[in-house]
From TrEMBL:
Lineage: Bacteria, Pseudomonadati, Thermodesulfobacteriota, Desulfuromonadia, Geobacterales
Keywords on record: Iron, Iron-sulfur, Metal-binding, S-adenosyl-L-methionine
GO biological process: heme biosynthetic process
Chain ranges of the Radical SAM core domain: 99-321
Protein name: Radical SAM/SPASM domain-containing protein
Required cofactor names: [4Fe-4S] cluster
Origin superkingdom: Bacteria
GO molecular function, one term: catalytic activity
Protein species of origin: Geomonas silvestris
InterPro entries recorded: 4Fe4S-binding_SPASM_dom (IPR023885), Aldolase_TIM (IPR013785), Radical_SAM_PqqE_MftC-like (IPR050377), rSAM (IPR007197), rSAM_sf (IPR058240)
Residues of the signal peptide: none
Length: 475
């Protein structure tokens, strides 16, 4: 699994590849490692084993240097794996490609926030303080997760820092060497920044330093305050930036872009750069279930303008790490060479071509992690499979205030939501689909998009070729 600031990426390895990677302890030479692999994997010749080891290294290093040459300089930052940690009893035969425990958890300390952003994706379900999980239960959950081998969690909400004892809970995660991104719009005072340093937020774990992501959507109060729905937010956010940068914490500032603030993207990024921020994210607005307005979608002209603004500021600050989400860079737009269509007009494609394009998009769709590699724990302990869906009714698959993580993960209630039996799709195209089991066993489907578009989690999402239509515009 690879640590990313805004999302978790993981890959499923074959047992042979996983075993080979676990043998790379920084002590064996390439030849000696290949000799061990030849013996353990029953290769006929040493050359075959060497070719296999080289293939494993190339695969592991496709995006990042997961395998590196051991030196005294890099040794303090390298995590070596114990091969015996990978020796487990063979699981019972199952048709589901699913880990025996979650790879990650999404933890929601609070549904509340200091702001009221118009683009917020959170349900903001009101949970009375007396129904919140206790600090002790959260700490027990952290330890259960650690015992299950979970090394990375997500903190969402609401705002994680809205809870009074949030820094104490975060300190416990750090003591367990958990990796996480702390995303917030709360005012980070000098005292809070000092406390973050004190509890180890700036201390590297392996080769990673935990990241704090502060959300700010404009370069001045006239832009940022209305976006946040909170008068005075801009000044508080800039004070947070100064406090976090001044203490050397690993800070990223993120802006969500709508037509309202699109003309100010250059000014926003430039302000962050001159304020000492080294990482900036710019994300296009996408549809939310609870607060959506169509006039928040970006037009093609606005997207092109944003790309040009980003290109300009990147040229001025070449060392700035700028990430675009849901947006193309100026270079990518130029490579596409596709003329922008008038708003609302679709490309003139024949039905067969449209279907072919849709089938290909479905084939390479993003895997659903809900119930397959992760689950979400809400402030009062209700467990759902995604933090953007309702936290009640049929979407609740467990209770972390009552049951252990392992009990919830392996419960029939969770499995029936993540891998619904055919009967739950009665009345939809999925019910008669011959590939239903294969669909669920592999990538799954986005039940959030199904619910957004058709009011039911048990229907084909708009991306599926079997869906009745293309659904609502999502971004």
């Amino acid at each position: 699994m690879k640590y990313e600031a805004e999302q978790i990426n993981y890959s499923l390895l074959s047992p042979m590849m996983a075993a080979t990677l676990s043998l790379m302890d920084g002590k064996l030479s390439f030849r000696h490692l290949s000799m061990v692999v030849q013996y353990t994997h029953n290769f006929e010749t040493l050359k075959q084993a060497q070719e296999f080891v080289a293939q494993v290294i190339r695969s592991a290093n496709q995006e990042n240097d997961a395998v590196v040459q051991m030196t005294s300089q890099v040794k303090p930052f390298i995590q070596c794996l114990d091969p015996f940690e990978f020796v487990v009893p063979p699981p019972e035969e199952s048709g589901q490609c699913r880990p025996v425990a979650p790879l990650t958890l999404n933890l929601m300390f609070s549904n509340d926030c200091q702001t009221s952003c118009g683009y917020c994706y959170a349900e903001r379900r009101r949970v009375p303080p007396e129904r919140h999980l206790s600090s002790m239960r959260w700490i027990e959950i952290f330890r259960e997760a650690h015992a299950l081998g979970i090394e990375q969690v997500s903190l969402s909400g609401g705002d994680p820092l809205f809870r009074n004892d949030a820094l104490d809970l975060i300190a416990d995660l750090i003591r367990l060497d958990m990796l996480f991104l702390l995303s917030t719009k709360c005012h980070v005072t000098r005292e809070m920044a000092d406390r973050l340093v004190e509890i180890g937020m700036a201390r590297p774990i392996n080769q990673y330093t935990r990241e704090i992501q502060l959300s700010l959507d404009g370069p001045d109060p006239e832009t940022a305050d209305p976006m946040a729905g909170a008068p005075g937010f801009f000044e508080r956010a800039m004070d947070s930036v100064r406090n976090l940068v001044g203490r050397g914490l690993n800070l990223r500032v993120k802006a969500v872009v709508t037509p309202f603030n699109a003309p100010r993207v250059y000014d926003f990024i430039r302000l962050m750069a001159v304020s000492g921020v080294e990482q900036v994210s710019v994300a296009a607005y996408s549809r939310t279930l609870y607060r959506h307005r169509d006039d928040m979608f970006l037009s093609e002209v606005e997207r092109a303008s944003i790309a040009q603004q980003c290109q300009k500021v990147q040229a001025e600050f070449p060392g700035l790490k700028l990430r675009l989400t849901g947006l193309a860079s100026a270079a990518e737009l130029q490579q596409q060479k596709v003329p922008a269509l008038p708003e609302g007009e679709q490309p003139n494609l024949d039905p067969e071509t449209r279907r072919s394009i849709k089938e290909e998009k479905w084939r390479v769709r993003t895997h659903c992690s809900g119930g397959r590699s992760s689950m979400t724990i809400t402030p009062d302990g209700k467990v759902v499979l995604c933090d953007t869906i309702p936290q009640e009714g049929e979407f609740v698959v467990g209770d972390a205030g009552r049951d252990s993580l392992a009990e919830i993960w392996n419960s029939q209630e969770l499995l029936d939501f993540a891998y619904p039996p055919r009967e739950r799709f009665a009345g939809s195209a999925c019910y008669d689909c011959p590939d239903l089991e294969g669909c669920q066993r592999k990538a799954g489907y986005c039940f959030r998009d199904s619910y957004f578009n058709y009011g039911s989690a048990f229907a084909p999402p708009p991306l599926c070729p079997a869906a009745a239509d293309d659904g609502m515009r999502m971004d």
